[in-house]
Amino acid sequence: MLVLLPPSEGKTAPAGGDPIDLASLSHPSLTEARRRVGDALAKVSGQRNALKVLDVGASLAAEVARNTTVWTNPCDAAARVYSGVLYDAASMSSWDDATLTRAASRLRIVSALWGAVSPADPIPAYRLSMGTTLGRLGGLAAFWRKRMADELDTLADGGLVVDCRSASYIAAYHPSAPWVTVRVMREQDGKRSVVSHMAKRTRGLLAAHLMRADEAPESAQDLADAAAGMIGDSLVDVALTAKAKAPDELTLVIAG
């Protein structure tokens, strides 16, 4: 099983630590690609039109300015740098060694800057989304799609891929292994509707649930059965939908 997560938009900048060592990250074959994206990001972040290119507002100017020193900024484990609803729900920053060891082979965070990292990989804070076009590199989803597929397919090794990413990050990698996307809906007064904030939280809870399990699901039905073990509190139903020309879909239903 391989669980795919999106990065958080916001990052917690480490207060101290060594600068990034690209060779220390998972998937060292991506080193040159990571260097190219980092160099392009540092360059564009120092330009007058940086906010426009990176599609962020003036309130994030300090984060964009921090990109200019991405190679010398302090690092911490990705589990602590990525923050926000999904990561808070997963309590990833407090995962014990056993859970992090499972995550090293079971989970990847798909990143516009790093391609894919494990929660234990040391990275600096940065501001960059997969929907960005970076000069000669072009659109980042297309850039990484050409370079990341073999790495993640090898890691998945034909096993189940559980996809908790958003659309722009899905565009960067389409698994060749059995593939299940995760959708979250809210049930209120007998009616179901799509949710956003709570979807991130629920996907985070699912990721943590799967990382803590001794046995990884081997099929879409195994995944649905594992997710059903979360029913209680806000989760009220789990449904699996098989699709002929698209990934299977796991729907997690939360109470309104």
TrEMBL record:
InterPro entries reported for this sequence: YaaA
Top-level division of the source organism's lineage: Bacteria
GO cellular component, one term: cytosol
Membrane-spanning ranges: none
Region (Disordered) residue spans: 1-21
Protein's GO biological process: response to hydroperoxide
Name used for this protein in its record: Peroxide stress protein YaaA
